[in-house]
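A reminder from the course coordinator: this example appears on the midterm review sheet, so study it carefully.

Given structure:
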C-alpha cells in the first residue's frame, strides 16, 4: 500500500494565499474613475463635521444608478451624494452597498485650507480639512 504524504504549508503562506484570493475576488468591483470629493465651503465655514451614510446601487456597466441618503448633516449630504454619483466601477454583477463619507476638521485653522481624502475602500471615504481662520470682531 502506497503512503501519501500530507502537504503542510507554513501558516504565513496559508494566509498569503488566502489574502491573494480575497484580493482577487474584491478587485472585481473596484472604482475605476471618480471625481475627488471636496469639503463643502459652507460646512467648513460653519465648522460642521460628521458622517454621511449613503446607500448606492451599481449597475452591470459600473455606473452608480441609485444613491439614497440614509443619514447625515444637511450641509454635508449634497457633496457626498454628488460625489458618489460620479464614481464608475469596473463592470460586473449589480452591487448594492452602503458608503460612509466621514467629514472631519483638523484642530488648527489655516488661511488656505488643505484637504486630505482617504479611501479606506469604496465603502468608507474620509475627507479632512483645516477649519477656517477666525477673524477678529471690531
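Designed residues:
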Amino acid at each position: 500500500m502506497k503512503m501519501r504524504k500530507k502537504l503542510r504549508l507554513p501558516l504565513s503562506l496559508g494566509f498569503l494565499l488566502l489574502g491573494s484570493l480575497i484580493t482577487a475576488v474584491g478587485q472585481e468591483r473596484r472604482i475605476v474613475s471618480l471625481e475627488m470629493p471636496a469639503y463643502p465651503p459652507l460646512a467648513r465655514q460653519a465648522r460642521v463635521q460628521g458622517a454621511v451614510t449613503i446607500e448606492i446601487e451599481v449597475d452591470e456597466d459600473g455606473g452608480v444608478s441609485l444613491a439614497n441618503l440614509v443619514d447625515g448633516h444637511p450641509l454635508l449630504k449634497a457633496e457626498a451624494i454628488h460625489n458618489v454619483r460620479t464614481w464608475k466601477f469596473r463592470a460586473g454583477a449589480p452591487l448594492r452597498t452602503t458608503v460612509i463619507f466621514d467629514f472631519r476638521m483638523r484642530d488648527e485653522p489655516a488661511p488656505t485650507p488643505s484637504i486630505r481624502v482617504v479611501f479606506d475602500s469604496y465603502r468608507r471615504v474620509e475627507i479632512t480639512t483645516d477649519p477656517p481662520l477666525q477673524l477678529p470682531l471690531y
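The first strand starts at residue 31 and ends at 33. DSSP finds three helices and seven strands in the chain.
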